[in-house]
Amino acid sequence: MTTTTPTVSAAADRSSVSPEWLLLARIEMIRYARRPAFLFGAALTLAALLPYLDPAEPVDELSMIAPAALIGLFGITLSAQRVWASDRCADAAGSTPVPMATRTLAHLAASVVPFTIGLVFVTVSYARYLTDPPPPSGYAALMSDGWVLAVWFALGAVSCLGGPILGVLIARMTDRRAAPILISVGLVALAIVFQGLFEPLRRIRVFMPWTYWGGPFGIDGDPQRSMVFTGSPQWWVVYLLVLCAVAGLVALRRDRAWRSQRNGIALGALVVIAVVTCLAAMWTGTPDTVVNPLPGDGTSWGG
Hints:
Layout lengths: L3 H11 L6 H14 L1 H12 L17 H28 L7 H11 L1 H20 L13 H29 L5 H15 L20 E2 L11 E2 L4 H20 L8 H23 L6 E2 L12
C-alpha cells in the first residue's frame, strides 16, 4: 500500500500540465522576443509600414507577405530551435526535469509574441485602408470591409501564429535539424502552386495556410485587371485557427503521460471541425471568380 500510492500519484501528476507552466511560458516569451532572428524580422516587417506615412502611397495586399514571410515562415525554424534547446536543458537537469507537456505548452504560448507583431501590422494597414478608400480599379473595391479584414487578418496575423506553432510540432515529431527548413521550403513551393493563378486549383487552394484571395492577376488583353477569387475568407480564418489548435494538441500529445481519452476525443473533434470549415471556405462566400469591369492600373488593394 505504501509503495503503490506514490507511484499512482506521480503518474497522475505527469498526466497533467504542471502549474508552473505560466512562469515558464513567460520565460519562453521573453526568450523568443530576444532572439536576433525574430528582432530582425520584426524590424523589417514594421519598416514595411513606413511607406504608409505618405498619404499618396496605397496599401497593397502584397504587403501582407512581409509579416507572413519574415515572422511566420522564419518562425517555423526559430520555434523549433527553441524547443530543442529547452529539451537539452531538461536532459541536463537529470531525474527531475520539467515535464515535456509543460515545456511544450510554454513554447506554444510564446507564439503570442510573433502573433502580436503580425496583429500590429494588420491593424495599422487596415486603419489606413478605412481612412483611404481603395481605388475602383482594385479588387477590394468589389468586396466588403469585413471581407478585407478577414483576408488581411489571416494572411498577416494568423500566419505569424501558425508558423511558430508548426515549428513546435516539428520539433516534437523529429530531432532532425533540417526538418523546419525543408518544410518551410515545401510550404513556399505549395503556396506558389495554390496561389490562385491556376484556375482548376482555385477553389481548393484554401486548404493551404497561405494563399491569395485576389489581385491584379490580369485577363486577356489586360494583364493588370483585378479579380476576386472564390471562397469565404471568414470561414478560412476559422479553419486556420482550428489548424493551429490541432497542431498544438498533437505536439502536446507527444508526451506519452499526457495522452488521454479526453484529449484524444478533443483532437478528433478538432480535425472534423477543420475539415468542415475548410469545405465551408471552399464552397461558401464568393461563388465564382469576379473580374473588375474597370481596366487595371497596376494598383492593388485587398489581400
